[in-house]
Automatic annotation (TrEMBL):
Gene3D superfamilies: P-loop containing nucleotide triphosphate hydrolases. The keyword ATP-binding applies. It comes from Scandinavium hiltneri. Signal peptide: none annotated. It comes from the Bacteria. Belongs to the ABC transporter superfamily. The keyword Nucleotide-binding applies. PANTHER family: D,D-DIPEPTIDE TRANSPORT ATP-BINDING PROTEIN DDPF-RELATED (PTHR43776:SF7), TRANSPORT ATP-BINDING PROTEIN (PTHR43776). GO terms for molecular function: ATP binding. This is ABC transporter ATP-binding protein.
């Protein structure tokens, strides 16, 4: 795919969770279990799924903080010589991600300055330019991060990410720690920056309305796999996987976060993975054909799902 910027193929990643008295690992938490994902240049790809499905593990893997156990993470189309290898991350809680001892102008330019030999004056000028781009007043840049409001701090975190000139920004719940009134401002800023700088976003969020508003495509995760992926409209309005359907039905209003596991969709333990389709034991449409592992199947050019009954389910209107 020519516009594909990043690709994950059949990625597995497990954390040791128990050891015997000799220190040998006797049990693993299987966080990612055959994850397939493509990210296209210039898009916003939303990642949704309930707590524990592997979203943060995926983000850490993308940022190089974890390596796949097996499978492939192809970053070859990203610039390896830039700080962060062309990828930067914006975290949920801006305060804990910003060094409290530094003035903001130093924080903003941190990613590029470690390896740079330019003068402090040049560094300051860059900080002021980035601050202007994200709507932080340059005259406040000598202050530490705790002197700013939550929304301003998130702007600072975005400026810091931009300083490294990333191709991709991983946005991990970028507005969920903010007041409702500020959330829209930050989302609008992200949209503007994306248009201006041709950025690609991977947006991790519990909030369906944020994902719907921001994303071109959506990937739905369940037990460390992508179970449905496609254009936002198709996936959220006409979900083809039984899990996505239950997830959407459990959201009474579209601005409600997917906080609690919806009824009948509680994640089974990821220490002992189910055989066949991982959703089988909770699926209202399950039958004997679901006892074998389900590959991602293409429904249309822009919609794929891990369910062999998807066409039937769509035809039945999910009933
Ligand atoms: N360092 C670790 N050691 C052991 N288990 C881990 C570790 N990190 C994550 N896990 C486990 O891996 C699974 C996936 O966790 P992850 O944090 O990626 O989920 P998540 O979808 O981001 O959840 P949340 O929305 O609550 O942040 C969970 O069962 C979690 O307990």
């Amino acid at each position: 795919m020519s516009d594909c910027l990043l690709e994950l193929t059949n990625v597995h990643l497990a954390f040791p969770s128990r050891r015997n008295w000799l220190g040998k690992v006797t049990e693993y938490v299987h966080a990612l279990n055959g994850l397939d994902l493509t990210v296209r240049r210039g898009e916003t790809l939303g990642i949704v799924g309930e707590s524990g499905c592997g979203k943060s593990t995926l983000a850490k893997l993308l940022m190089g903080m974890l390596t796949p156990g097996t499978g492939q993470l192809d970053r070859s189309r990203l610039p390896a010589d830039r700080p962060g290898g062309g990828m930067q991350m914006v975290f949920q809680d801006p305060l804990s991600s910003l060094d409290p001892r530094l003035p903001v102008w130093r924080i903003i330019t941190e990613p590029v300055w470690i390896a740079s030999r330019s003068s402090e004056k040049v560094r300051r000028a860059l900080a002021e330019k980035l601050a202007q781009q994200v709507g932080v007043r340059p005259e406040y840049l000598d202050r530490p991060p705790h002197a700013f409001s939550g929304g301003q701090r998130q702007r600072i975190a975005i400026a810091r990410a931009l300083s490294a000139q990333p191709d991709i920004m991983v946005l991990d719940e970028p507005t969920s720690a903010l007041d409702i009134s500020v959330q829209a401002q930050i989302l609008n800023l992200l949209v503007t920056l994306q248009r201006q700088q041709n950025l690609t976003y991977i947006l991790i969020s519990h909030n369906v309305s944020v994902v719907r508003h921001m994303s071109d495509r959506v990937a739905v995760m369940y037990l460390g796999q992508v179970v449905e992926m496609g254009e936002t409209q198709s996936v959220l309005e006409a979900p083809a996987h039984p899990y996505t359907r239950l997830l959407m039905e459990s959201v009474p209003r579209l601005d409600t976060p997917l906080g609690e596991a919806p009824q009948n969709t509680e994640l089974p333990g990821n220490r002992h993975l189910p055989a066949g389709c991982y959703f089988r034991e909770r699926c209202p449409w399950a039958e004997s054909g679901c006892a074998v592992p389900q590959p991602l199947r293409r429904l249309t050019d822009n919609h794929a799902t891990r369910c062999w009954k998807a066409e039937k389910i769509i035809a039945m209107g999910g009933k």
